[in-house]
Amino acid sequence: MAVALRTQRELARWYKLIEHPVQTALINAVANGVRFPVVPAGRRSGKTERAKRFVAKQAMQNAGERYFIAAPTRDQVKKIYWADMKMLCLTSMASKSPSETELIIYLDNDTEVHMIGLDRPERIEGVLWTGGVIDEIADMKPDAWEANIRPALDTFNPTRPDYRAWCWLIGVPDGLNHYYDMAQYAESSNDPDWKVFHWKSSEILPAATIEAAKRQMSAKQYRQEYEATFEGATGRIYEDYDKSNHTNAAIQPHEQLMWMHDQNYTPLSSAIGVRRDNSLYLLDEIVLTSAVSKQSAVEFVEKFKDHKSREVLIYGDPAGQAGEKHGHASDYTDIEGVLRAHNWTFKRKVRAAHPAIKDRQNAVRAKICTADGKRSLFVNPVTAKWCDKGLATVQLQEGSTFQEDQKNKYQHITTAIGYCVDVEWPSIKRTETHTAHVPHMGR
């Protein structure tokens, strides 16, 4: 009997994986009595693929069971798992089609596999689970484990009084948060229900991929993402910034200017730099007290009235575009109006929405110094004093792993720098930046 094309494709999805001893131990963990395998493993190193296959095999081998796969949001679990789980569970051979609205896979052995978004943690309640997986657990709501998930897993089943549901807890570390606490408990408590399974991306991925990551990430981000280490907050946000990032360079008349904004009322801070090869040189700045963006633009055109290259790239806070959808003036239209009146052309390179703070910070860290020791952000500490002081001193807000200390007046200019770096050298792939090119009238 010929196998249907769809079923052939599903079977092909079970391709051979690279063998790894820790991953093999993880696969056997539940059978060996570990209820809660904690899996802080490197990015793209197979932890999610192993989780998919483990749940699929369990579901197909065991009749009448209820399994779940969860992520911090419904959109995440659908994007990461849904299509693959339908293939790995060979749903083309099932009598009942998966529910695309409820994200449930039904197998002919009366077993179900549910995809759950933990943005509403109560979704996991009310079912007598056999076991499951929580992915990206570091991004889960911190209190969801104790308030919703663990009670659901501990729910007593009178038909199976000795059974306790299991759960893989997987993800990349993100500071010393609740996931760190789980890993620490699993390592140090001697609780037989808990065990840590850790491996680095370099143990799975090709050397060329690892070297590329080191070229693109700061040392701290690389350790967290690819070595799966729990990185604590050290206080200084840009801890690798030092005198190695200093330069005595000056802006040359022919160079295109890059102007970076954070529209704070006071101090109203903007950095001015140039690109040389793949490096960013921050060589000037405009910092005003109790001012608005139009006043900053007046300062700019006076400061650079003799500059030969008359096109400037504008970066900054997406909130500065407020009002434009309704035809109102904005911080950027005010700036652009002054530029246009003084024979400048410009390209606005401002995102439609704010980047995640962590992404912006990681992008700047990678320019300051990558994991392989390359620096490509330089500051003239004489002509760009606020840029230098900000990158050297801005700290984390007390108790946070990423929020910036708003009491530091230099924080605004480092934020402005981050908006530029996030557009030109983002730490992760993004959608296309909205760019406006508005030439001077009559030119």
What can you tell me about this protein's structure?
By secondary structure, the chain is α/β, with parallel strands linked by helices. The protein has helices spanning 5-12, 21-27, 47-61, 74-88, 144-153, 178-188, 207-216, 219-226, 293-303, 331-341, 357-368, 385-393, 411-424, and strands at 36-40, 66-71, 104-106, 112-117, 131-134, 166-171, 194-196, 257-262, 268-276, 279-288, 311-316, 345-349, 377-379, 435-438. The strands form 2 sheets. Strands 3-4-2-5-6-1-7 form a 7-stranded mixed beta sheet, with helices on both faces. The chain has a 7-stranded mixed beta sheet with strand order 13-10-9-8-11-12-14, sandwiched between helices. Helix 9 packs parallel to helix 10, helix 11 crosses helix 13 and helix 12 (385-393) crosses helix 13. The longest helix is centred in the first third of the chain and has 15 residues, at 47-61. Residues 429-443 have low confidence and may be disordered.
Summarize the structure.
The chain has 2 domains: 5-207, 3-Layer(aba) Sandwich (Rossmann fold); 243-438, 2-Layer Sandwich (Nucleotidyltransferase, domain 5). 32% of the residues lie in helices and 17% in strands. It contains 13 helices and 14 strands.
Count of distinct structural domains: 2
Query: Cα-atom Rg, whole angstroms?
Result: 26 Å
Oligomer: single chain
Q: Class of the largest domain, according to the CATH hierarchy?
A: Alpha Beta
Q: Please give the share of residues in helix.
A: 25-40%
Distance, first to last CA: 73 Å
**Poorly predicted regions:** 429-443
The CATH topology assignment of the largest domain is Rossmann fold
Structural class: alpha/beta
